[in-house]
Amino acid sequence: MSLFHTVALFCLVAACSAHLCLINPMQRGSETGINKAGAADCLLLTAPCGGRSKDTAGVTLTGGQSFTVVFQKNLDHWTKATPGNFVISFGSEGGQLTTLATVMDNGEPSLTLYERTVTIPLTKGNFILQVTYNPNNPQAPAHFYQCADVHVI
C-alpha cells in the first residue's frame, strides 16, 4: 500500500469513526469534550479498555443488585443496511467477559444517551464493566471500547 493510500485510509477512518463514551459508571481516563461529536476521549479502538490503564478510583457496586449503565454514542456511524449494536459486558480484564445486555443501534443521532439497567453478577472482587460499540459498518473500525473499573461487594 502506498503512503498516499495509507494516509487516505487513515483520514477516512478518522472522519467516519463512531465514537463511544461511558457516563455511568465513569469511564477510565477523562471525559473531555464529550458534549461535542467526535471527542477524542470517545475514540478508543484497542480491546478491552481502549488502551487505558486501570483507574484506582472506580466505583463500588453490590452483587445481585440492579445498576443503570449510561453511555453515549458520541459520533454516529449507523448504516441502514447493516445496523450495529452496543454490548455491555462484565468480567476480569484480560479474562472472559460475560454479556449483561445488548442494545441495538437504530440510527439515533450523535450525542444520544442510552440507558440500560443490568444486574451486577454475585462474584465479589475487582472487575471491569465494558461497553463496546460494534457499528457493523465496513467504512468504520469494527469496535469501539470503554471500560469502568468496579469493585463488587
Structural commentary:
The protein has one domain (about 5-150): Distorted Sandwich (Coagulation Factor XIII, Chain A, domain 1), CATH 2.70.50.70. It contains one helix and eight strands; from the N terminus they run αββββββββ. The chain has one helix at about 5-15; strands at about 20-25, 60, 65-75, 85-90, 95-105, 110-120, 125-135, 145-150. With about 150 residues, it is mostly beta strands. Strand 4 (about 85-90) and strand 5 (about 95-105) form a beta hairpin. The strands form two sheets. It has a five-stranded mixed beta sheet with strand order 2-8-7-4-5, with no helix packed on it. The termini are far apart. Keywords: Signal.
Task: Put the structure in a nutshell.
The chain has 153 residues and is mainly β.
Keywords:
mainly beta; five-stranded mixed beta sheet; 8 strands; 9% helix
Taken from the alpha-carbon principal axes, the silhouette is globular
CATH architecture: Distorted Sandwich
Uncertain runs are 1-17
Terminal-residue CA separation: 51 Å
| Strand ordering within the main sheet | 2-8-7-4-5
Number of strands: 8
Give the helix proportion (percent range): under 10%
Strand content: 35-45%
Count, helices: 1
Mean pLDDT, as a whole number? 89
Coarse structural class:
mainly beta
Q: What radius of gyration results from the CA coordinates?
A: 16 Å
Order of helices and strands: HEEEEEEEE
At the fold tier of CATH, the topology name is Coagulation Factor XIII, Chain A, domain 1
What is the CATH domain class? Mainly Beta
Number of structural units classed as domains: 1
Query: What composes the largest sheet?
Result: 5 strands, mixed
